[in-house]
Amino acid sequence: MRTASICTIGDEILIGQIVDTNSSHFARALEEAGIKVSRMVSIPDNASEIESVLIRELSNNDIVITSGGLGPTKDDITKAVLAKISGSKGYVEHPGQLEMVHRILSSRGLDVLPINLAQAMVPDKAEVIVNRLGTAPVMVFRDICGGTLYSLPGVPFEAVGAMPAVMDDIKKHQELGNILHRSLMVYGIAESALSEKLAPWEDALPSDMHLAYLPDTLTGIRLRVSLYGGDESKDLPRLESEIIKLKALLGSLLYADEDSNLESAIGKMLREAGKTLSAAESCTGGEIAHLITSVAGSSAYFLGSVTSYAVSVKESVLGVPADTVDRFGVVSSEVAAAMAEGVRKLTGSDFAVSTTGLAGPGGDDENPVGTVWIGISGPLGTRTVKYRYSNDRKRNIERFAASALNALRLYIQEALFGA
């Protein structure tokens, strides 16, 4: 199996000024192509360290992918180091990237300065993949210390945009192994409890198969079953056989048998059934509506939402009775139910979801920080459910929204399919 090392270059990552999202994206793309990522390394803006680390990684891996250090300012020194370790004699102008420099800066109404034009100059040993999203090119250096190096810009938008072309080049020049993957999406159980539940099945997996648990606040747990070094025509049926067993164990915890999310699963059910949805949010402040509308085509089933943060809006817009608020409090089952019923009536939707709670920092003995009541209204009547989390405000809001979507998902599933 081919191996790869991912190296980020720049002091800004090491001092915590920015978060490295490029490496995780690179790793996913490499792993899906059957390439094992052996290391992830962050390197400061120091020429000698960049040189020594890259030589080491190239000596121990088939592929090295770097990001960062390619900008027009003086602290961007990666290109000079790459020229040195590749044995380049000088620099040459790449016409394709030069054209992009002019086009991008002109479209932004900026002057094209000599410092910008210099970005189209590359070491003479480099092959260039034109970066159509920025001014710094993607450079490819082959046969350096036994490996191939791909140098990408550090800006995430540009780095992610360049990866399809990088992967095409890797597949063209490398003999790759085969990894078969299947992903299942689960919500409503802790990772530790899920691991215990699946232990007998996991222990009985064939030696060439592996189960990975990939938790996320908003999507739950992605279970990825992988078969390494397999032949698709021969081994895919074996993999699918294990997936069938796994699905039976998961039951209603399973919401998608592909890499997906709750909002997409809900959208798929509503679209296929021709049903509609609305939302009434207090403590989630529009997060549920944001997640739902992040799905392409959601306008076919999502009618709208009311962010009823103030009690007056709950009462005047959603029709929550004042005496209900007085008797039970804003954070209550009764108010959550009234909010869901109110927005459903207001919009005429088939289903509605609501939230009322305390994301933080304030709370009390009855409703501590992290408490949320979720209401669901639809053809089966109105139901509510209460959750308590103990995170910071931002994470509580994410958990509230994800829990609301999961409760909605289970309700719609029962209403439409009886399960």
CATH architecture of the largest domain, by name, is 3-Layer(aba) Sandwich
Structural class: alpha/beta
Let me know the average pLDDT: 94
Span between termini: 43 Å
CATH superfamily of the largest domain: MoaB/Mog-like domain
Helix count? 15
At the first level of CATH, the class of the largest domain is Alpha Beta
What is the spatial order of strands in the main beta sheet? 2-1-3-8-7-6
CATH names the topology of the largest domain as Molybdenum Cofactor Biosythetic Enzyme, Chain A
- Unreliable segments of 5+ consecutive residues: none
Global geometry = globular
**Beta-strand share of residues:** 15-25%
Count of strand segments: 17
Radius of gyration: 26 Å
How many structural domains?
3
Q: Main sheet, how many strands, which sense, barrel?
A: 6 strands, mixed
Q: What is the helix content?
A: 40-55%
Task: Provide structural commentary.
The protein has 419 residues and is of the alpha/beta class. It folds into three domains: 3-173, 3-Layer(aba) Sandwich (Molybdenum Cofactor Biosythetic Enzyme, Chain A), CATH 3.40.980; 179-256, Alpha-Beta Plaits (2-Layer Sandwich), CATH 3.30.70.2860; 262-417, CinA-like (Maf protein, Alpha-Beta Complex), CATH 3.90.950. Helices cover 42% and strands 25% of the residues. It has 15 helices and 17 strands. It has helices spanning 11-14, 22-32, 47-60, 78-85, 95-107, 114-117, 156-173, 191-203, 232-250, 262-273, 287-293, 311-316, 322-328, 333-347, 393-417, and strands spanning 3-9, 36-43, 63-67, 91-93, 121-123, 127-129, 138-144, 147-152, 179-186, 209-216, 220-228, 254-256, 277-281, 302-307, 351-357, 371-378, 381-388. Strand 7 (138-144) and strand 8 (147-152) form a beta hairpin. The two termini are 43 Å apart. The model has no long low-confidence stretch (mean pLDDT 94).
